[in-house]
Amino acid sequence: MKKRVAVIGAGPSGTAVLRAFQSAAAKGAEIPEVVCYEKQDDWGGLWNYSWRTGLDEFGEPVHCSMYRYLWSNGPKECLEFADYTFDEHFGRPIASYPPRAVLWDYIKGRVEKAGVRGWVRFRTPVREIEYSEKTGRFTVTAHDLVNDQLSSEEFDHVVVASGHFSVPNVPEFPGFRTFNGRILHSHDFRDAVEFKGKDILIIGRSYSAEDVGSQCYKYGAKSITSSYRSRPMGFKWPANWEEKPLLQRVENKTAHFKDGSSKEVDAIILCTGYLHHFPFLPDDLRLKTANRMWPLDLYRGVVWERNPKLHYIGMQDQFYTFNMFDAQAWYSRDVILGRQKLPALAEMQKNSAAWRAREETLEDAEDAIWFQGDYVKELIDLTDYPTFDVEAVNKTFMEWEHHKAENIMGFRDNAYKSIMTGKMSPKHHTPWLKAMDDSLESYLNESGAPAQKSFAKAK
Known about the structure:
43% of the residues are buried. The protein has a 5-stranded parallel beta sheet, covered by helices on one side. The protein starts with a strand and ends in a 15-residue tail after the last helix. By secondary structure, the chain is of the alpha/beta class. Helix content is 25%, strand content 18%.
C-alpha cells in the first residue's frame, strides 16, 4: 500500500512541504500520496489577507493576523526561495521591502508552477488526530466546511505546518473592563486609518509593536505611546512617540505606568504575541512551547522525538522564514522517504539539549540571527535543497538591523543584493512613509504613478 502523508496548513510552511515532495517526484523519486488540509479558501497562510476579525462566515476563528498597508519588515533578500527567485516570478528585480500582496503573490507563484494545488483540500480544518500504536498510523478527522461534513482518513505520517501567529496571547490589565475607548489585540488590527487623530497606547516591544505603531504614525495618529515589560525598543522615534515602562492600570481613559507617569489614550493595542495552539492534537503529540529560537522535543527542530512519524515545520521564533521552512520541509521529506536515518531517542534529545544550551547564551538579535543561520545551513547540508550563502543572508540581516537603528521610519527605503541571483535590488519608487497604496500593482509600477492595470508575472 502506498504511503500517505497529511500536511496541516497551506501557508509558507505547508506549501514548502508540498514543493519538497513535488521536487523529489520531478527528479524521479516515488513519493507518498500527500493530502494537505487548509482551513482558509486559498493558500498562503497569514499572507492571505482577510478583512474579517473574530470568527469567519463558518464560525471558525479567523487565521489572518495581517493588516492593510502591511509591508515586509525585513529584506525580501533574506527570505527568498533558493529554487524560485523573485526575478523568476516577477520577470525583473523588485525593491527589497514588498507589501503583503506582493509576497502573497510570490508564495503562490512557486506552488502554482509546481502544479500541486490538487493536493490541497481548502476550507477543511482538521478537528482531531489520533495515533494507533497497533497499526502505526494516524487517523485524521477533518471538517469540510462548505458541505458541513466530517470525515476520517488514515495516514502514515503527519506534518503540522499550521503556524503559530494566529492565536493571540491576550493579557488583561486593571481597568480594562471600564476603559472608555477601544481595546484590541494586533491580531484584529486591520486598518491604521481607524486611529487617525487618536492617542494610541501599544503594549509590547517586539516586531508587531514596532510595526503597528509605525503604521499608526504613518497614517496620522496624534500620538503613540509604547509600553514595555523588560526594556524599551530604543529606536529614534518621531517626536509624537514615547516609550514607557509597563502599564499598571487604566482609569477611564488615563493609562498609568510603572514609573508613575500617566497618559490619556483613545485606544489600546495589545502587541503581546501569540500562542502555539494545536487543539486537534492529543497531549502526547502536542508541542508545548513559548515562542523561542529552539523549542524542545523536536529533533533538528522538525521531528517529534517521542513519535518520529509526526513532524512540525516553522515552530521556531523566526528571523529566517521562507527558506528556513524550505530547509525543514526538505529534511522532513527525506526522513519520510527513508533518506535520513534517525538516531535513538536519547541521541535525539541530546542533540536538542545542545541547541537549547546554545540558545540560552544568545544575548541579542545579532547572536540569534547567526544561531538560526547555522541551523538553516545544517539542514540544507543534509538534503538536495539548493545551497545558498547563509553567511551572506546573515550579513544582510545585520545591515537591516543597522538601518533600523539609523532610521526606524526610513529603513524600508534601502535596497540589498539578492543572495540567489547576485543582482542588486532597485530602490522603491516612493519612500515608505509616502507610499500609501499597498497594492501589488502600485508597488510594481516603476513610475510611481497610479497603476491602471494588472502586471503580468513570469511563472
